Amino acid sequence: MRKEKYTKPREDDNQKNEKENDFHIPQQCCPERYPSPKLPSPTSCLPQETLEKVIEKIRAANELLLDLALGDERLPDETYQKVFDGLIGLRVEITSLSGEHCEGKVSLSGYDFVVLRNEETVFIYPYSEIDVVKPFGRFADPYDDPELREIDSCFRRELTFNFGDVVSSSPELIHLFFRMRLNIYLLVFEEKNIQIQMEGQTIKGQLKKVDKESISLEVDGQLTTISIDKIKLFILNN
């Protein structure tokens, strides 16, 4: 009887078979496979537009939680900036270092201060005077942020070629690009009546002048200069 000559499989063939059959199952044991459409399963039962809004809210909430968790590693002003950015439009209660409470909707998160609005009253809190922030609601009433996409061509040209002069002349643009500091924001209220609270003292008067480190109030016909660092709260009535 003639013997069949045995041919040793080439190493390349073995590697090819192993690559095609990772579980070493004999090919004759595998049933014939029929092509089937590969359709990805939906990630959610929500409509796409609603899903995108939910994802955005989750992202914002996660960023807020991360900022709170990293609060000890950040400067106090930076921490409050991030916190109040996530609370814009929400009603909150602020407890000051002296234990006083103030309630209103967050309308502006500045560089070193926050603005709350409660009906016709505006409260301006320096971050350095805040002890506790307590949100009241889950849903925010959005404030219209200034946008530069729809500006006219003349203003666009001025902003492009005279950026410093144009931005420095507008508190809104300063805040949009750099965040306003408290002394810059107070310029908006010059010649308006304002109430300030200091340690054990409340003063009412007309805001006459704002400098980098102080303000000047006209009280009973006399001009009084007060250091901004000593002021715990600014209150205005629209």
From TrEMBL:
Compositional bias, Basic and acidic residues, is annotated for 1-23
* Record region (Disordered): 1-43
Q: Name the chain's protein.
A: Spore coat protein B
Q: Which organism is it from?
A: Paenisporosarcina quisquiliarum
Q: Identify the taxonomic lineage of the organism of origin.
A: Bacteria, Bacillati, Bacillota, Bacilli, Bacillales
